[in-house]
Design a protein that fits this description.
This protein has 15 helices and five strands. By secondary structure, the protein is mostly helical. The protein is globular.
Length: about 550
């Protein structure tokens, strides 16, 4: 949590005010506050919610605020932080840190599906679409950043993008932004559950075979040699589960029993419930935030893995512009909207970009830093997607064998892939409770005014979210499909429709709307709508 305030601007301290006399202990790093201080803070929050953020009528007056050296920040997590000093009204992060934060926030599970998306679109059209979608989503994100400043005569310095939507569209904007935000959060949690089941299955299989000295070969086509690549979906329309052949003279019965109880879709997704459901019910998941650096480590390791694999496998490319053969796909394919759906989520940061940029020390560099971050994200996606597609060994395998999770193209006994799965599994198990906490805060606070109204409310919500993840891992373990559906759905609102509509409305009210601007932004909205519809047609 980055907490910075301008000591010259008392208004920015509202309504987070805790009297120093109410701090139980000032010697601890995380200082607990008394019930009196907590109740006072809740009353201030309650009064501030009776009116819109733009109405200052129920804001505490300046004279009741203490001196800057006596200011504490009350956190909903039950802690108080002392504000020591500030240099200006914004954050202390440099441009480099801001760029890295945006890159780290945007890089997620979508990177695993980029090679599959390029295969679905075609190699040439895939590269073009990554570039075009990066530019388009960057522009829409720029419109989000500028949306607050287009509201006249109102202090919008503490507003988030849902507040802007509420200002322009009323309660519809408020509730629809909540709905699409929940779609993005729950969609991400479902993808996480499917991937965690996949990684846990392959990790457990590797460990069991290693401990029992069992040599196992999956019954799927693949290459020979030390850098083996497999095609799990070649035998049928869906990936096989546990079908394998054991070549050792070990305990056949024990191995068959293991395969029966360690199944990718029938058993492993249910085992995760015992670990993750209790974690979701914690009031504060702040402990898991300390492991956010694992996300960066995982992405860096994936880039390293892709580079090493490509160096050993070589480049396998042939250009067939509109026709395909047994080993290669056309350069342009009608399935390209499947990649645009994945990319909508891959470049999605629009619902939190204002918060990230508020911590930038030099606010005049926001647009530049955002553009550099998008460039780096697009470069990372291009590198991983192009290298995996180009180095995939065709022949003997067809490019159609590239899986929705490209790690599935490496057998479970591949050491580098095993390390990658371990990294990603642990990282996702620490991020999953954070995503659940965000979903809980957004939904329950909207309906009940409290992020933790009772254990029953929280348990019902978490059981529903976990149930969705288990159901998808059991019956539809296709992360590429889940990513493109959720990405196109939440992207329709936050990426395409709301930023464009808000810009058109604000320009119209200011009397500055031109026909070219109107046509361009209507076209952007139509693109988002077509992107969503195409996901269900292809």
């Amino acid at each position: 949590m980055n907490i910075q305030f301008n000591p010259e601007d008392f208004k920015c301290k509202r309504p987070f005010h805790v009297e120093p006399t109410n701090i139980v202990s000032v010697n601890d790093d995380m200082q607990r506050v008394t019930d009196e201080a907590s109740a006072m803070n809740k009353r201030i929050h309650y009064y501030s919610r009776l009116t819109s953020p733009s109405d200052r009528a129920l804001i505490a007056p300046d004279h009741v605020l203490p001196a800057p050296d006596e200011i504490y920040v009350y956190s909903p997590l039950g802690t108080a932080f002392k504000v020591d000093s500030c240099t200006d009204g914004y954050g202390k992060n440099s441009s480099i840190v801001t760029i890295f934060m945006i890159w780290n926030t945007m890089m997620g599970t979508s990177i695993l599906s980029i090679p599959w998306g390029i295969k679905q679109a075609g190699f040439t059209s895939g590269i073009i679409l990554i570039l075009l979608m990066g530019i388009l989503t960057l522009y829409c994100c720029y419109r989000v950043v500028k949306s607050r400043k287009m509201i006249p005569l109102i202090d919008t310095s503490n507003w988030e993008f849902p507040d802007v939507c509420k200002y322009y569209f009323g309660s519809f904007g408020q509730w629809s932004s909540l709905l699409f935000s929940m779609v993005s959060l729950v969609g991400a949690m479902v993808v996480y559950w499917v991937l965690m089941s996949n990684f846990l299955f392959n990790t457990g299989k590797f460990i069991y075979n290693f401990v029992h000295d069992i040599n196992v070969t999956d019954i799927v086509p693949g290459t020979n040699g030390s850098n083996k690549v497999i095609c799990p979906s070649a035998a049928s329309g869906h990936p096989p589960q546990n079908r394998s052949v054991m070549f050792s003279s070990g305990n056949d019965t024990g191995f068959e029993l293991f395969e029966e109880w360690w199944n990718k879709s029938k058993t492993v997704p249910f085992y995760l419930i015992a670990v993750l459901l209790p974690l979701l019910n914690l009031k504060s998941p702040s402990f898991f935030a300390k492991f956010n650096v694992l996300g960066t480590v995982s992405v860096v390791y994936l880039v390293f893995l892709v580079t090493i694999k490509a160096a050993h496998l070589g480049i396998h490319l042939e250009y067939h512009w509109f026709t395909e053969n047994d080993f290669f796909v056309p350069e342009f394919r009608i399935l390209f909207p499947q990649l645009t759906g994945v990319l909508t989520l891959a470049f999605f940061i629009h619902n939190c970009v204002i918060t990230l940029l508020q911590n930038n020390r030099n606010q005049e560099n926001n647009v530049r830093d955002l553009s550099i971050a998008y460039f780096l994200v697009g470069l990372t996606y291009l590198y991983v997607g192009v290298i995996i597609f180009a180095s995939f060994p065709s022949p003997p395998l067809s490019k159609e064998c590239i899986e929705q999770n490209f790690l599935d193209n490496f057998p479970s006994d591949d050491i580098m892939s095993f390390v990658a799965r371990i990294f990603l599994l642990f990282q996702m198990m620490t991020v999953y409770p954070l995503l659940g906490y965000l979903a809980r805060v957004q939904l329950l606070r909207q309906f009940f005014g409290n992020a933790y109204p009772s254990v029953f409310h929280v348990l019902v919500l978490n059981v529903a979210i976990v149930g969705a993840g288990v159901a998808m891992a059991r019956f539809y373990p296709n992360i590429g499909g889940i990513i493109r559906y959720s990405g196109a759905t939440c992207g329709l609102a936050f990426v395409f429709v709301y930023p464009s509509l808000i810009y058109v409305i604000s320009q119209h009210r200011a009397g500055q709307l031109t026909w070219p601007a109107l046509i361009i932004h209507i076209f952007i909205i139509l693109l988002g709508l077509a992107n969503l519809i195409a996901q269900f047609l292809l």
